[in-house]
Design a protein that fits this description.
The structure holds two protein chains of two kinds.
Chain A: E1 2-4, E2 21-23, E3 32-36, E4 41-46, E5 51-56, E6 63-69, E7 72-76, H1 79-86, E8 96-98, E9 104-111, H2 125-131, H3 142-153, E10 166-168, E11 191-197, E12 201-207, E13 223-228
Antiparallel strand pairs in A: 1-2, 3-13, 4-12, 5-11, 5-13, 6-7, 6-10, 6-12, 8-9, 9-11
Chain B: E1 6-12, E2 17-22, E3 26-32, E4 39-45, H1 55-62, E5 72-74, E6 80-87, H2 101-108, H3 113-116, H4 124-133, E7 146-148, E8 152-154, E9 160-162, E10 172-177, E11 181-186, E12 203-209, H5 218-221, H6 224-236
The chains are: A mainly beta, B alpha+beta.
Amino acid sequence: MSSIIAGNKTENEGTTDKNLVASQLRRAEAIHRHVIPAGGSWIHEIKQGQYFRIVDLHGNQAVDTLFYNALDYSDRYSAQDTIQHQRNIYLTTGTKLISTMGTVLLTIVADTCGRHDTLGGACANESNMVRYALDKRHMHACRNSFLKAVTEWGRGMSKRDIASNINFFMNVPVTPEGKLTFEDGISDPGKYVEMRAEIDVLALISNCPQLNNPCNAYNPTPMEVLIWDSKR
Amino acid sequence: MSATPIFWEETIQPGATWSHVLKRGTSLRVVDLEGGANVGGIFYNFECLVERYNMPDTLKAQHIARLSTGFVLYSDMGRILCSVIADTVGWHDPIGGTSNASLIEKKYGPSTYQESRNACHKNGRDSFLVELGKWGLGPRDLVANVNFFSRVVVDEIGGMSFVPGNSKAGDYVELRAEMNVLVILNTCQHPLDPNSKYQPKPVQVAIRRVPMPAADDPCRVSRPENERGFTLTERYFL
């Protein structure tokens, strides 16, 4: 399924060769392809065994992502359970994305970026007011996209379901002294992360519209999602 | 911080759960009675329970992966649920999460109430869910928690390590409620605690009235983000 990319981006702290794994799945064989515009959202079911790829088309674009057990939305991605299980705060090849109930939702099987964040959460009107200035309330934010998407999806989903998310392609290191820092991105145009769904899941994405910090290099750009059917 | 009379104090037994609506202008002091305690905590705006403690907002507003005096706990609505107004420990863990039944059985073996009575093994997730259930909340409300008295450090490649001996007998942390806050606690062991024995520890909690945060309150002035957080919280009560 996968092959190792030799010696690429090893200058990034915490990003080792073993994390950098390319996929052999071909774009032309994907059963679903969709470009999510900057600031847009996407909600979609991914079936057990399917492969799900997120492509950072233009580089350094934070992709705020949540997953739910498709049969029980109260069983959802848990940032703390995921990092606790692997005893590492960064998500990359081999990471099992674990739910609040301990279910393995998906496994990351390929990653050409090498490190993804799950501590920084999603931007919101209200958190932007705290972080930047009280007059930032009007600016488009991920949690508005999440709320709009779950409201339209219906099926009983609401703000209660907006949990702490993954930020694919974002670089948020923690220092040994307990400081959380936001560093320049380590992603580049065309880099991607690919997961295998271990059960039927619902994926929810906000393509981050943040303009107040470098998580999108101050320039939110489109990204692409692709799905392949189970190969075997 | 001048001492005001304590309304009441009580002990939370090892592996037990506790909840209380901590009123704005009161504080909750939690004392590690024996050393090595862990207290899992989640916090909600009691008037609007869908507003709750938000780990990422707390971390990124203050650029921290630990909690201590001068830091605050943010809700997902840009408001401050609680401020840490006193702390003799220096590091409380906001990222390590909680244990679950399978982890506890794997680490400590099987345990039943029928055999062990109230010493039977408890786990963090089920403890949170039971206490949440008493307030009409459930799995959809189970968000990332804080682990008071525990320390988890992160190395340069992201590896997480539990640091034993972080809290000594008599150490305490005191939280001032900035809203009317539903506090959900349990005293289950930290999920990354390498102790091979099931040994949760008791803590004492004490509730008292405290002054409202002044203009020069250390939590307010610790950074501009918190000044704005206090402003937004005070506006909520206008």
